[in-house]
Amino acid sequence: MSLLLKNAVLNNINTDVLISEGIISQIKQNIDESADKIINADNKILIPSFKNGHTHSGMTILRGYADDMKLGPWLEEKIWPAEAKFTPKAVYWGTRLAALEMIKSGTTFCNDMYFNFEMSQKAYIDAGIKSASGPALFDFFDQKKAEEMKANCNIAIENTNISKNNSLSLAAHSIYTLSRESLEWIANLANSKNIPVHIHLAETEREVEDCITRHGIRPTELLKETGLLDTDLIAAHTIWLTDYEIDLLDEYNVTVVHNPVSNMKISTGGVFPFKKFKDRNIKMMLGTDSCASNNNLDMFEDMKIAALLHKFHNNDPEIMKAEEIFDISTGNEASVFPQLSSKIEVGTHADVLLLNPNTPELVPSHNLISNIVYSANGSCVDTVICNGEILMENRITKDEEEILENVRFLSKNLFY
Hints:
By secondary structure, the chain is α/β, with parallel strands linked by helices. It has 2 domains: 43 residues, no CATH class; 280 residues, TIM Barrel. The chain is 38% helix and 21% strand. It is built from 14 helices and 18 strands. A 6-stranded parallel beta sheet has the order 9-11-12-13-14-15. A 4-stranded mixed beta sheet has the order 3-2-1-4, with no helix packed on it. α2 crosses α14. The protein is globular and about 65 Å long.
């Protein structure tokens, strides 16, 4: 499959881009070659797509279901009881809805954590977007549950077919849902199978206090003792950290994921220590978290709110500049995921967007990146290409009505 983009605007210059078998093969003006598909991108703005570093995609069915609550009651009284009603079909269609929303707002990859992950992976494959996902791992400090978790995890790994778009990760939920023994088991499995681990870390002050009470050490220290820092670790939230813990994340080359909207809405307290991470060159990604806590998956919104949060918190308008958060959001530091590209260059994966320059939010264009971060939203995205495949053109996607209809039906029948 070959695709030719004609007369797109890349770095303020009109150019053509030829994509062959999912890879950008030429970037130059007036490419005179045939292609299976030609898009007249006349003056549309070509940028890398967004990479969402932390999601629970199946939870789109819980959008607006439990808002304006503290984290503990939100999880224990509303979310977990609701999820107990989920069927594999609900997870599939909830994930298809998440993928649809991500496509329509310019995201082509998510690092996901959810149960029934086989249904999530099927949904991503059917939608055409890239993902890293795997079995959700938790034992709630129950030995019987731990043995069931291990058995189910091994079966899932054996039966998972890795594709060019979709890779496997171990979704170790958190230190407050996994025993020390299970954390050690996950670390050993990850290293023996060369699989990344995705975990919530230091999200709340209570998590830290409970960890000290139970284990006598702080969360990041527990990850060191159990071997999880020795894996390819992606840690979401990473708010309540000491300087020593941040040094550990640096030493072990951990990728951290900032989830500003979810953290502010749930009021987890504290602020992602962006400057300390930046000073140590720690790899960062941006994530939306779930639709139950965000309540959307629009990375434009999270970019802007992340930048404003840190400017306000640090009383410094020069911190987290537009270029910095744009690079983080497009996956410039997401090296743990080999299926991603964050640059539009010959030889890279063709994961790109065309923005409509005639949307009001992009006019005038004194500074394109500033417009994208501070002004634009998902509706500015005209065309989405993932691995050379067109997922949306002129804002038209496949299966949209079917997805919406199924989620409406499932939501109504699950909860009312």
